């Protein structure tokens, strides 16, 4: 049994133990991680540490006690709203991450359709490539959840919506881009169909929200996906991915902003007085808000453009490098800096095992099997090394891999423990 130590330790001792626990953690300082970490370099790290440390002990639950946190959150929301071509009629809140933003998008649609159309058990339609956070939200919110089929080109096709939409449909979802292949769904076509039926349409820009606007400014051809597209009623955008904030920072935006009435919660039927929250959290950490606000102002448009350029340079060199090897390929046509490597000749997951042995960390996918890479600015330092190791791995891998495709935690131990008790 683990228990609270009877006696305390010094800061030095505690930090030494903490560091020793970290010995098997992925080495993100040297850009070895192709998932979970979006590192913009030591200078930005310092900004994040300073700002997070400065507000560390505050609580964003009550903005009247800490008005600076309210100001910073309003500033973060307004900046993202502007980047996504929203206006005074659009707006939203900060959340703790993509999952909470998506949950709030799904809940808002459910409650609005309940109020406006009297739909009791709603249906949510998502592309096959939509993030699991939608399945999770539908599960929590007791909604029926259906997936659009994926084309042979690994694209979502808007035509598939016909025949799937029912009178009970409360939300249709598209991604910009999706997680597995980094491809943007046909947002204008999907949103038009949703609008014609009076159904809310959510764009999941958790990945693209803070990257695509800058790619467009750099001259990349980006298919339409933001509030310029008619019919889009909500967008989720993560700051803790390509906004380079610390974990715990995302935004959910609604059109019209008045839909927020279906997101917020208020309660006063207890002795403690009126209790209200904008999203899921009660006590809300200030550190992600302070750090997020600080990095937006530290980098500015100029900084984000530079980082977007660096990230795309690394991405293009990687993709060219992969395409130059005849036995591996990139699945689909990525629109950004997220892509998946597959092979018809090799067991790509066994290739991944060798890359793991050489210190690289990435997620694995199945259907089709792939190694999943999310590129960030620091990866420009390791492109050649990675390609060299990939070439080596292609010549030295085993027949098959024993590792499963994963993203996130494996909770099967907890599940079986529950069943036994
Ligand atoms: C990361 C991600 C999410 C979920 O966000 P979390 O911050 O991990 O909760 C949702 N959608 C897409 C496309 C993502 O990449």
What structural class should be given to the helix and strand makeup? Answer: alpha/beta
The distinct ligands, each listed once, are: pyridoxal-5'-phosphate
Question: Care to count the β-strands?
Answer: 13
Number of helices: 11
Lateral arrangement of strands in the main beta sheet: 1-7-6-5-4-2-3
Q: Any low-confidence stretches, pLDDT <50, length ≥5? A: none
Separation, N- and C-terminal Cα atoms:
18 Å
How would you describe the shape?
globular
Mean pLDDT: 96
* Percent of residues in β-strands: 5-15%
The quaternary structure here is single chain
Radius of gyration from the alpha-carbon trace, in angstroms: 22 Å
Order of helices and strands: HHHEHEHEEHEHEEEEHEEHEEHH
- Main sheet characteristics: 7 strands, mixed
Percent helix range:
25-40%
Overview of this structure, please?
The protein has 421 residues and is of the alpha/beta class. It is globular. The chain is built from eleven helices and 13 strands. It is 38% helix and 14% strand. The strands form three sheets. The protein has a seven-stranded mixed beta sheet, with helices on both faces. A four-stranded antiparallel beta sheet has the order 10-11-13-12. A two-stranded antiparallel ribbon has the order 8-9. It binds pyridoxal-5'-phosphate (PLP). Pyridoxal-5'-phosphate is lined by residues 97-99, 102, 131, 133, 175, 179, 204, 206-207, 238, 250.
């Amino acid at each position: 049994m683990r228990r609270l130590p009877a006696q305390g330790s010094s800061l030095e001792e505690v930090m030494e133990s903490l560091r020793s626990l970290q010995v098997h953690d992925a080495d993100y300082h040297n850009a070895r991680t192709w998932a979970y970490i979006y590192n913009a370099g030591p200078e930005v790290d310092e900004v994040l540490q300073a700002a997070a440390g400065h507000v560390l002990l505050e609580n964003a639950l009550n903005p009247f006690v800490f008005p600076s946190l309210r100001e910073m959150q309003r500033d973060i929301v307004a900046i993202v709203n502007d980047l996504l071509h929203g206006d005074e009629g659009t707006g939203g809140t900060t959340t703790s991450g993509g999952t909470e933003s998506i949950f709030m998008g799904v809940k808002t649609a459910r409650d609005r359709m309940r109020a406006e159309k009297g739909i009791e058990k709603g249906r949510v339609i998502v592309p096959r490539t939509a993030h699991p956070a939608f399945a999770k939200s539908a599960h929590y919110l007791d909604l029926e959840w259906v997936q659009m089929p994926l084309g042979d080109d690994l694209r979502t096709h808007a035509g598939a919506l016909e025949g799937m939409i029912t009178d009970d449909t409360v939300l249709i979802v598209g991604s910009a881009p999706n997680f597995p292949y980094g491809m943007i769904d046909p947002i204008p076509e999907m949103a038009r169909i949703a609008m014609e039926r009076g159904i809310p349409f959510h764009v999941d820009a958790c990945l693209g929200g803070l990257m695509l606007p800058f790619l467009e400014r750099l001259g990349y051809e980006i298919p339409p996906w933001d509030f310029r597209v008619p019919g889009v009623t909500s967008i989720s955008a993560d700051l803790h991915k390509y906004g380079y904030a610390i974990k715990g920072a995302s935004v959910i935006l609604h059109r019209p902003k008045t839909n927020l009435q279906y997101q917020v919660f208020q309660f006063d039927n207890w002795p403690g007085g009126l209790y209200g929250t904008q999203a899921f959290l009660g006590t809300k950490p200030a550190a992600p808000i302070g750090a997020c606000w600080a990095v937006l102002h530290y980098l500015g448009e100029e900084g984000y453009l530079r980082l977007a350029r660096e990230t795309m340079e690394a991405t293009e060199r990687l993709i060219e490098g992969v395409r130059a090897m005849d036995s591996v390929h990139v699945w689909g046509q990525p629109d950004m800096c997220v892509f998946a490597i597959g092979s018809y000749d090799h067991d790509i997951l066994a290739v991944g095992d060798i890359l793991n042995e050489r210190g690289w960390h990435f997620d694995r996918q199945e259907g089709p099997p792939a190694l999943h890479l999310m590129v960030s600015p620091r990866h420009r330092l390791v492109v050649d090394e990675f390609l060299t190791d990939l070439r080596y791995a292609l010549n030295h891998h085993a027949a098959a891999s024993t590792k499963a495709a994963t993203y996130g935690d494996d909770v099967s131990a907890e599940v079986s423990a529950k069943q036994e008790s």
